[in-house]
């Protein structure tokens, strides 16, 4: 709980006689101001120190004897781990985790430096899998969201490396990411980690489709599966981040479709892909039905507007780009409306940003080809400034009314 937020809200609760002044003082004493910005500095500082040491070693690598190279790698890694463990036991968790993260980076760098030293040639993403597995293990040992993020980044980069250099999808890296980090998230149920895990799953799905050279439209199937999974999870704090990661992927996909659909690329099935097209329609219809059933059972049919981003508009051929654009705009307005209805600052701000972005995308799509470029930027800037002023005015009015209601 934020000390700053509690300090602001406690007087309101005392005024409304929800709690007494003594209880408010105890709450403020319990949730002390931890100054999170200062806590991040050891993490960043440790990473910079570690990267500086590794850069120095790499720059002088050729002049160091083989045995000394191996000793430097092992001692650096063990030294960072030992120092991190020591600070953790002394209660300085931030600095300790920073040093352990540098130890993990040293471990990964050591894998590649040793491979270079013995002229070992890689044919898959095995090095990244080993590195990422070590990160997953450390994440479970130290129960750290920072190490979770670092491990996810290693495994996602490793998958991209495998695809771009070897043209293969590493199922081992995918399983380590989804099972290892997924199990950690399931035990801790952090909304932020669920969102990150969902985005990683969406990114890995895109890599899988690219590796098998499948039609880009099929990407919406894993997106829809993750979204439906969120519908069937009854604990909404757990489900929302998963669905939001799926909707993030769908929003980006719609933006891409707006820009390329007119050229007939990426989305839509050709005559030779009739089987894929039939399978796609059947699977998407089944997933939409499952989503509708779950929403009805939980009384959340009003959230069905989210399907706007998930429907296959590419079947409309020439009108597809325009329909994707409308879907983006209507979805953004629905998020904005839900924010006002639920008195949610986050949704109001998010809806405003998404709508402004959708309008900008529409303007670029419709005006770039025929309008003089200087006039294009001038008119676009005026349009966005005007919309921003109007939406921010509405947002400030809403927040002022919400604040007035709280103090009544």
From TrEMBL:
Descriptive protein name: DUF2157 domain-containing protein
Keywords attached to this entry: Membrane, Transmembrane, Transmembrane helix
One Pfam family named in its UniProt record: DUF2157
Protein's organism: Paenibacillus contaminans
Transmembrane parts of this sequence: 37-58, 64-83, 95-115, 121-139, 169-186, 216-233, 277-294, 314-336, 348-368, 374-391
Occurrences of domain DUF2157 (ranges): 13-147
């Amino acid at each position: 709980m934020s000390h700053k937020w509690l300090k602001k809200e406690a007087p309101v609760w005392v005024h409304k006689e929800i709690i007494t002044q003594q209880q408010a003082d105890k709450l403020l004493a319990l949730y002390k101001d931890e100054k999170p910005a200062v806590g991040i500095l050891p993490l960043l500082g440790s990473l910079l120190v570690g990267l500086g040491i590794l850069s120095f070693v790499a720059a002088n690598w050729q002049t160091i004897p083989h045995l000394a190279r191996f000793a430097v790698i092992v001692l650096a890694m063990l030294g960072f781990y030992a120092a991190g463990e020591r600070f953790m036991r002394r209660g300085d968790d931030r600095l300790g985790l920073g040093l352990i993260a540098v130890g993990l980076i040293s471990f990964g760098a050591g894998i590649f430096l040793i491979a270079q030293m013995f002229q070992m040639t890689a044919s898959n993403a095995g090095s990244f899998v080993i590195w990422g597995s070590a990160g997953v293990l450390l994440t479970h040992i130290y129960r750290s969201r920072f190490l979770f993020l670092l491990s996810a980044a290693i495994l996602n980069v490793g998958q991209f490396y495998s695809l771009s250099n070897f043209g293969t999808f590493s199922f081992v890296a995918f399983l380590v990411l989804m099972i290892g980090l997924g199990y950690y998230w399931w035990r801790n149920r952090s909304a932020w980690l669920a969102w990150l895990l969902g985005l990683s799953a969406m990114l890995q799905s895109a890599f899988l489709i690219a590796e098998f050279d499948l039609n880009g439209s099929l990407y919406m199937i894993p997106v829809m599966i993750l979204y439906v999974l969120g519908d069937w999870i009854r604990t909404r704090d757990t489900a929302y981040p998963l669905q939001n990661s799926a909707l993030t992927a769908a929003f980006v996909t719609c933006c891409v479709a707006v820009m390329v659909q007119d050229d007939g690329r990426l989305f839509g099935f050709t005559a030779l892909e009739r089987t894929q097209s039939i399978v796609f329609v059947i699977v998407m219809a089944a997933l939409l039905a499952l989503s509708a059933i779950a929403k009805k059972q939980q009384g959340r049919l009003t959230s069905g507007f989210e399907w706007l981003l998930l429907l296959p508009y590419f079947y409309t051929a020439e009108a597809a780009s325009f329909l994707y654009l409308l879907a983006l705009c209507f979805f953004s307005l629905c998020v904005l409306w839900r924010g006002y209805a639920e008195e949610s600052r986050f949704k109001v701000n998010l809806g405003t940003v998404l709508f402004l972005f959708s309008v900008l995308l529409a303007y670029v799509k419709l005006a770039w080809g025929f309008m003089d470029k200087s006039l294009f930027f001038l008119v676009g800037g005026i349009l966005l400034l005007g919309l921003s002023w109007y939406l921010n005015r509405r947002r400030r009015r809403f927040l002022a009314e919400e604040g007035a209601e709280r103090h009544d």
